[in-house]
Amino acid sequence: MDTNRFSGKTAIVTGAGSGIGLAIATQMFEQGATVIAVDRNAAGLTLLPDGVEKVKGNVTDPELGARLDQQLGARPLSILVNNAGIGGGGRADETSDDDLQRYFDINVRSVFRLSAYAVKRMRGTGGGAIVNIASIYALIGATGSAAYSMSKAAVDGMTRQMATDFGPEGIRVNAVAPGLIETPLTAERIRTEAWRHQIFIEQAPLRRVGTPAEVAAAVAFLASDEARFITGATLRVDGGWAVGRYPRQQSTVGETA
Ligand code: NAD
After folding, report:
1. N or C: which end of the chain has fewer CB within 10 A?
2. What is the C-alpha to C-alpha distance for residues 104 and 85, in angstroms, rounded to an integer?
3. Is the CB of 64 under 6 A from ligand 1?
């Protein structure tokens, strides 16, 4: 591990108290970044290493930028990772207006607002990098997740749009589209619900789901100087799941993965 990969860089990571965000904030910190971790769940923030700066806050709060300004002080902002988000949901005919609003407030409006904030902080400081966490569901048709898939498709489009607007100022904007990632929340269901096992493991080219650390590694790459000529890209981190299905002849449901 290169512990100097992000030395001298300050990164804000949202939703850093669990799962993928926890892995992103931890990896960047271990690789030398000053990390400001934001989560609405204070207990989750305690899981982060000592030395990570913790801000309990909701990404939907319009005052969050002002609070981040206070936390940053005069330090230039180099990296923003828009990771906080909610999943799940149902089909369009099962989704209320309120549900739709909630998905768009958390998964889209907050990304839009925080990115605009970050651009103002990065402008004139030699550039920066924004990485958005979209989803493979932004790119394919997926059953039973209308509001979620639409919200992540908006994040995918926003990534290209902002990359175009802010590239001339040296600000790169990219996204990662994870497939199913094994977190404490999803692990048990992946193994015990036969249809999930069949769709996400048996039919996946790499025959497994991903880990938060694997998504974090892709995010760190896009945020790093190694990706200095990459902007407007959405990188799938899904074990090949979205490019094709490769069913086995015999189901392995019931076997432990
Ligand atoms: P998670 O639920 O484990 O963690 C999300 C974190 O974000 C939590 O700590 C939560 O408290 C925080 N959060 C949620 N809403 C917030 C808000 N309004 N303000 C501040 N903090 C908030 O989820 P995860 O699986 O790690 O997912 C992280 C991101 O990755 C999400 O954007 C999700 O849509 C995306 N994603 C996850 C998967 C997967 O399989 N886990 C797949 C594709 C995309």
Report:
1. N
2. 10
3. no
Token pair, residue 248, equals 């086995």
Q: How far is the CA of 180 from the centre of ligand 1 (A)?
A: 12
DSSP string for residues in 138-167: GTS--TT-HHHHHHHHHHHHHHHHHHHHHG
Mutate to test the pocket of ligand 1, among 36, 55, 63, 181 (most ligand atoms within 8 A of CB): 181
Active site residue 117: no
Report yes or no: 222 and 131 within 8 Å, Cβ to Cβ. yes
How many A from CA of 39 to the centre of ligand 1?
10
Burial class of residue 137 (count of CB atoms within 10 Å of its CB; 0-12, 13-18, 19+):
buried
How do residues 161-216 score in pLDDT, each as one tens digit?
Answer: 999 999 999 999 999 999 999 987 777 778 788 888 788 888 889 999 999 999 99
Report CA(153)–ligand 1 centroid distance (Å): 16
* pLDDT at position 256: 46
**pLDDT tens per residue, range 2-23:** 999 999 999 999 999 999 999 9
